[in-house]
Amino acid sequence: MNPATLPTPDPAFSALFPDLSWPDINLHDSMQRRKVRFEATTPGKVGMYLCGPTVYSDAHLGHAKKEVAFDVIRRYLTHRGYSVRYVSNITDVGHLQNDADEGEDKIARRAALEKLEPMEVAEKYYWSFMDDMGRLGVQRPSIQPRATGHITEQIELIQELIARGHAYEAGGSVYFDVRSWPEYGKLSGRKLDDQEEGTREAVRGEKQDPRDFALWKNAEAGHIMRWNSPWGEGFPGWHIECSAMSLKYLGENFDIHGGGLDLEFPHHEAEIAQAEAAGHGFARYWMHNNMLTIGNEKMSKSKGNFTTLKDLFERVDPQVIRFLLVGSHYRSITEMSEEAFVSAQNGYRRLHDALNEIERRLPTAPHREDVLSAKVARHVQAFEDAMSDDFNTPRAVAALFNLTSDVNAALAAGEVGKGALTQAQAAYRELGGQVLGLFAAGMAIGAADDTALVSTLMDVVLEARQHYRLSKQYAQSDALRGKLAEVGVTVEDTKDGARWKR
Length: 502
Hints:
Elements: H1 11-16, E1 26-29, E2 34-37, E3 45-50, H2 61-79, E4 83-88, H3 106-114, H4 118-135, H5 151-163, E5 167-170, E6 173-176, E7 213-218, E8 234-236, H6 240-250, E9 256-260, H7 264-277, E10 285-289, E11 292-294, E12 297-298, H8 309-313, H9 318-326, E13 334-336, H10 338-361, H11 372-388, H12 393-413, H13 418-435, H14 451-470, H15 474-486, E14 490-494, E15 497-501
Parallel strand pairs: 3-4, 3-9, 9-10, 11-13
Antiparallel strand pairs: 1-2, 5-6, 6-7, 7-8, 11-12, 14-15
């Protein structure tokens, strides 16, 4: 890409680090199975599509892994100066049990269990999902289209496929003819002849080939969710919605398509076939996040280790969950365990406390040069290098921890100037906050982390302790210091007065 067409990172942040270099962004493209240099279709703009949830139950940790992973990717691209249009769909019809072409619609089944209308179920769990993602600090999509709101677009795409000889009608349903599209399987690397009959999909007699997949389903008697179509009353298949909606809102040859690794086949494979067989250029880069385990086992309801986010929020702060997720690379398996949560809480608290101390000291810090400034710049560069290398969040978090070590050492020595503290604050707020989504207002670890409240209360406590000392009431002063130590607060007497830290 011509340097003149590269986006411009935030000027205010860049001005604090004039010697910072901005590496090319490289990402792992699932289609090419290797890291490649990212180049936007339109200079300075990124079109990004993420396969969203099927809203029939409460969100779980698997949803959190995917949503946080791509939220961070979006945030980093924004940090680098790109204007990102982020589209993530809501599946509220057509996703059948076991991802098959036969069986009950997941939402219709839940509606029967809860004695609700299907759209009531979709609304209930859509807002539940959005609430959970909001608590995790996931930014809302630029556009969040629903399958039921785009029936017309799906029908039109199906008609294009029929006209081009890549789909056929049978018994009021329409199927994609995989034999007509030799490239089917290029994303997952599965050759058509090696795909076994019945894999992930039930075989239906009216199909010309058992590997064909549904574009439109005939609605049988009693099926509530149904729309008129050229083939009779029915509803769209699971795959067609993402092809239709991503093309509608991002156009042809959009930049990035993301989703969970479990969607690579057949869902994403089908999306590509549908779009390209209809004559449309589709996603240029494919990115997939890996799964998570609980107690070293894949999370599943059958194993009894299935955890909803609402249940988890009752005992683990959402910011700690997010910190644990960003501490693992999006393409790696993330282990969720009680030990992992404890470690994440301690790690997050260490970063959070360092930021609090910086912001407490910043207003009264002297104007002077010091060695911390160069160290901050070095850690910021390490963060940028990590994120530019396939969004390597573990290395980025390590850069923040290294920054914290140097900041704490400088603060303890009392050798910090306002310039260096301003740079350090910007590093935490921009890189840890805006990019990784941490340190969100109102989302700290418990009420005790309300920065303004804690700072005010500690000022009062230190004034009381100083009063004891001046009055030579040393027993009371030591007792007060001891009580603070019991709750993890250390008081240090320095030449500039008393200082406290957790």
